[in-house]
Design a protein that fits this description.
The protein has 542 residues and is α+β, with helices and mostly antiparallel strands. Helices cover 56% and strands 9% of the residues. It is built from 18 helices and eight strands. A four-stranded antiparallel β-sheet has the order 4-7-3-8, with helices on one face. Strands 1-2 form a two-stranded antiparallel ribbon. Helix 1 packs parallel to helix 5, helix 2 crosses helix 3 and helix 9 runs antiparallel to helix 10.
């Protein structure tokens, strides 16, 4: 029951990954990122059940000098033992965590089929080989390599795989200039990223504390606490490492930019958790704080190195959050163990990290190298510019623009014509187009104003532009960028019987705030108009 409960808690981390990654990509790629998260679990867990769990058992047995039959290795497929099924599921949620990390590094430009193909192989072979060598009792286990809950086996491996995948797929369009300088591409929702971080942190207690599968014991027919003191150490060091990670990233961000970057705080919290995951059961509380601080502090430094030196576009910073933090935690374990430092443990940890990293890089390179050679790794330039939501899935994540609380026709009542006080005809008998650029938050008020003057039609476009409104500075993951193109709404309204001046004044009055950047309204003559449905021409068409 304990193992099942924490398994469900770890599964819920996928909600955190989905929110975290969706928040760090552009709005046109959100549905694609969510789809990858859903398919990582669905495809990956099926493949791990059918193939991966057995491969892990085979690798564990044969690399330790033993042997195992195929029937024994793939016994979960035929067993009727409930405990075997529970044990497999507990392993599966860890496997899917490693797999889903990769999606954040390649967001916004990789074909879905390429990503799913890699998910199949990481669940079937790449990750099971790592677990077979370690938790499966294989070669690295025999050498003394220690990783309590997957700081290196799961997160380090996933982060390294993500970095390798990002290298092969290449950077997003516009990420780098011809001279090698970097353009910042902010994600679309900081709240999503932070909420996803907190969901992951919540699930991490299942990840770390849940790995202690001997919490309860039965003595003399009664349920008693088993290794609960050791579980308490895991809970304590996990919490301290998490907190220290956020503090470490905040401090370096403040030093580098003069500001505490929100995304670095969130990513640093996760880096602290990753750094503590491999050693959380064996270290002192002081060690937890030091490792957490270092894991968080390295985040901005490593991200900048990957971005500006290696020129690898790691969208969600998966390598500094999971890869380098996982490596750091595994290597620092010997220095903070309760029983004291030993050279033998340090050597074992170094060997383990090197072997896992080398295997992950080599296997990932082979997979994505082959996919790239076939021309199937990346979407077309047009599709990338359009966004993967539309090109890969045919959906719009945010289909509504503005609040749809006012009908576009404003409740317009058809009439034969408007008689002006001077006896003339509106717009001097011609057709006029009113074009306006307004603040997005004023759209609803403008629609109401147009309804009041009887404006019959309206076209709305989301645009950006530059005028008298001053530029401002923005910051995304510690890097400053200038925002001189401001989001606006473009309105177009063609009128015949409705006086163009009335429409322009209605827009002006409804959109006005008195601040720079309120926008402008233009009135232009229309030479001719055609009604497609009826074939009418001129004013009648309008």
């Amino acid at each position: 029951m304990w193992v099942l409960v924490v398994t469900f808690l770890i599964f819920f981390m996928h909600a955190g990954f989905a929110m975290l990654e969706a928040g760090q990509v552009r709005s046109k790629n959100v549905a694609n990122q969510l789809t990858k998260n859903l398919l990582t679990w669905s495809v990956g867990v099926t493949v791990f059940f059918l193939v991966g769990a057995g491969v892990s058992a085979l690798v564990g047995a044969y690399t330790s000098g033993g042997s195992i039959s195929l029937a024994e290795a793939f016994g979960v497929l035929t067993t009727s033992a409930t405990t075997d099924w529970v044990g497999w599921l507990f392993g599966a949620v860890f496997a899917m965590t490693a797999a889903t990390i990769v999606s954040g590094a390649v967001a916004g430009r990789m074909k879905l089929r390429a990503y799913v193909s890699y998910t199949v192989l990481i669940a079937a072979v790449i990750y099971p080989v790592v677990t077979g060598l370690t938790w499966g009792g294989g070669l690295l286990y025999d050498l003394g390599f220690t990783d309590f809950a997957g700081g290196m086996i799961v997160h380090g491996m996933g982060g390294i795989a993500g970095l390798t995948a990002a290298y092969f797929v290449g950077p997003r369009i516009g990420r780098y200039n011809d001279d090698g300088s970097v353009n910042v591409i902010p994600g679309h929702s900081l709240p999503f990223a932070v909420l996803g971080t907190l969901v992951l942190a919540f699930g991490w207690y299942g990840f770390n504390v849940g790995t202690a599968a001997s919490v309860f014991a039965v003595e003399n027919g009664e349920l008693t606490l088993g290794a609960f003191s050791y579980v308490g150490r895991v809970a304590l060091t996990t919490t301290l490492g998490m907190a220290a990670g956020a503090i470490g990233a905040s401090a370096v961000s403040l030093y580098k930019t003069g500001k505490v970057d929100t995304l670095y705080v969130a990513n640093g919290l996760l880096a602290g958790l990753v750094g503590i995951t491999s050693n959380t059961d064996l270290i002192t509380w002081i060690g937890a704080i030091v490792i957490g601080l270092l894991a968080g502090a390295q985040l901005p430094i490593v991200f900048e190195f990957v971005e500006k030196r290696l020129k690898i576009d790691d969208v969600c910073a998966v390598f500094p959050v999971h890869g380098s933090a996982g490596v750091l935690g595994a290597l620092l374990l010997p220095f903070f163990v309760v029983d004291g430092f030993t050279v033998g443990l340090l050597v074992s940890q170094v060997i383990g990290v090197v072997v896992i990293a080398a295997w992950t890089i080599a296997a990932t390179a082979v997979v994505f190298g082959a996919i790239k050679a076939m021309g199937e790794i990346r979407v077309t330039r047009d599709h990338e510019i359009e966004g993967l939501d539309a090109s890969e899935h045919g959906v719009d994540t945010y289909p509504e623009f503005g609040r749809p609380d006012t009908a576009a026709d404003g409740g317009f009542v058809e009439r034969d014509g408007i008689v002006r006080p001077d006896g003339g005809v509106a717009n001097d008998g011609g057709i006029k187009m009113i074009t306006a650029f307004i603040r997005p938050d004023k759209l609803s008020a403008v629609k109401t104003g147009l309804a009041e003057v009887g404006a019959p039609s309206l076209t709305v476009t989301n645009v950006s532009g530059r005028g008298s409104q001053p530029a401002k500075k923005g910051q995304w993951r510690g890097e400053e960028y200038t925002v001189d193109l401001h989001q606006k709404v473009k309105l177009e309204c063609v009128v015949a019987d409705i006086p163009a001046e009335d429409v322009a004044e209605a827009i002006r009055d409804a959109a006005q705030t008195g601040e720079k950047g309120d926008g402008k309204v233009f009135i232009m003559p229309v030479e001719q108009a055609y009604q497609i449905r009826t074939g009418e021409v001129g004013r009648e068409a309008v």
